[in-house]
Design brief:
The chain contains 3 helices and 5 strands. By secondary structure, the chain is an alpha+beta fold. Helix 1 packs antiparallel against helix 2 and helix 2 packs antiparallel against helix 3.
Length: about 140
């Protein structure tokens, strides 16, 4: 039982050092094995219990933990442009494969979301990004 409690401490320490939801699952599994050892479960049963509990906790708790613990991350790449407003600098004509939008200090190749031509100086909203092209619609 003591060895399992040491394992719990080691896995918790690793989790504290990494903060990446990497070893908390094994800490929970080790705690379950420690309880099993305290109840007289043979060592092989303790190993199976530790592995099974770790897997179950990983499968069911990880999606919840990622959703609620990492929910405050801010997009820092091009996807952060979705929903932002820009100005058409070169007329958008999907059939000709042309169009340019100025947004947040940069020019981006753009296409119309509904295949409608959009004239210069029109305000547009970024609907999505496909590759390096903004897909926009009139504001």
């Amino acid at each position: 039982m003591v060895y399992w409690l040491i394992a719990v401490a080691v896995f918790l320490l690793l989790e504290i050092l990494t903060l990446g939801l990497t070893s908390i699952w094994f800490a929970v599994g080790s705690l379950a094995a420690a309880i099993g050892a305290g109840l007289g479960l043979p060592f092989f049963g303790q190993l199976i219990l530790a592995a099974a509990v770790s897997c179950v906790v990983f499968v069911f708790a990880r999606p919840w933990a990622k959703k609620y613990l990492n929910s405050k991350t801010e997009k820092t790449n091009a996807e952060s442009l979705i929903g932002k407003t820009g100005i058409v600098k070169k007329r958008i004509i999907n059939i000709k494969g042309q169009g340019m939008v100025y947004i947040q200090g940069m020019d981006w190749t753009a296409r119309s979301a509904d295949d409608e031509e959009i004239p210069e100086e029109t305000e547009v909203i970024v609907e999505e990004i496909k590759g390096v092209k903004l897909i926009v619609s009139k504001k």
